[in-house]
Design goal:
The chain is α+β, with helices and mostly antiparallel strands. The protein contains five helices and five strands, in the order ααβββββααα.
């Protein structure tokens, strides 16, 4: 706990020394990295992104980016892709009409995946236990984000 507090204080002090232009540049860099991460993830799953629907995509730097992407191959279809300080994942856009609802979907899905890992007993493996704990923690954070009206006030 102390290390996190120190780390966040250090980051805040560093941020205070940056100009607004530098902060904006760092945020844009983070968004680009998350976009590349999302594209790579989809490609590894055999889905070739055609375009991003930027007006429907959302991001909260440096925590989470939710992209609505349209695939051109293997067939034309839309997906929600999530990346950031959490596992990268994707789902058909049919499950959620908005980025906020997509975040809720990922949260609930990850809770179920973690529960399935625990119930199956694979969490005896320390790596699987760590992954299940990560899923639960990120799922809880996502759920809180999607419930926070302040974060979504500007969404139509």
């Amino acid at each position: 706990m102390t290390e996190q507090t120190h780390s966040s204080t250090t980051q805040e002090n560093a941020a205070q020394q940056l100009s607004p232009e530098q902060i904006a540049q760092m945020q844009q860099q983070w968004v680009r990295e998350q976009f590349q991460k999302a594209n790579k993830f989809l490609a590894e799953k055999g889905v070739i992104p055609g375009k991003v629907l930027t007006d429907q995509s959302r991001y909260l730097v440096p925590f989470v980016a939710v992209w609505k992407m349209e695939a051109s191959q293997p067939k034309k279809h839309q997906y929600w892709v999530i990346s950031g300080d959490l596992p990268t994942d994707y789902v058909s856009a049919d499950v959620a009409p908005t980025a906020r609802e997509a975040i809720k979907h990922f949260s609930l899905t990850w809770q179920l995946k973690a529960e399935n890992l625990i119930q199956s007993g694979v969490v005896r493996d320390p790596t699987q236990a760590k992954f299940a704990n990560l899923l639960v923690a990120r799922a809880q954070s996502l759920y809180k984000m999607q419930e926070d009206e302040k974060l979504w006030a500007q969404q139509a």
